[in-house]
Amino acid sequence: xxxxxxxxxxxxxxxxxxxxxxxxxxxxxxxxxxxxxxxxxxxxxxxxxxxxxxxxxxxxxxxxxxxxxxxxxxxxxxxxxxxxxxxxxxxxxxxxxxxxxxxxxxxxxxxxxxxxxxxxxxxxxxxxxxxxxxxxxxxxxxxxxxxxxxxxxxxxxxxxxx
Length: 162
What we know:
alpha/beta, 5-stranded parallel β-sheet, 5 helices, 43% helix, globular
């Protein structure tokens, strides 16, 4: 048998076997991931939030809310803090309530249920033309977002999340 004929036979066998492999492995050459059952204890976490779209804020709220749920949602044993200091600040302005009503109701509900705390950087708010009175009452205004993140990490042992 010549080399070219052997090579052609090899190629044909390789392509002919692909559907068989794909069907058995669902197009995943290494199979599927294994789920590791894990029980999580209450956590202390600070999220460094600097985003620019409603979808991104919703994503942070989803993650923080799920973290609260999966760790037992115990306000006495856990602390989940979001520190806002980016373009997202304008979503939390009272004057923009009608535009972002659904987002604000969700955020307020999470704070009210004690699942999380939302803090806002005063310096960033001022740079965008907002004072504490311009921001919804469920938000805590802190002098500086970066300093608050550092304080929470080093004085209150919060893990850092972005």
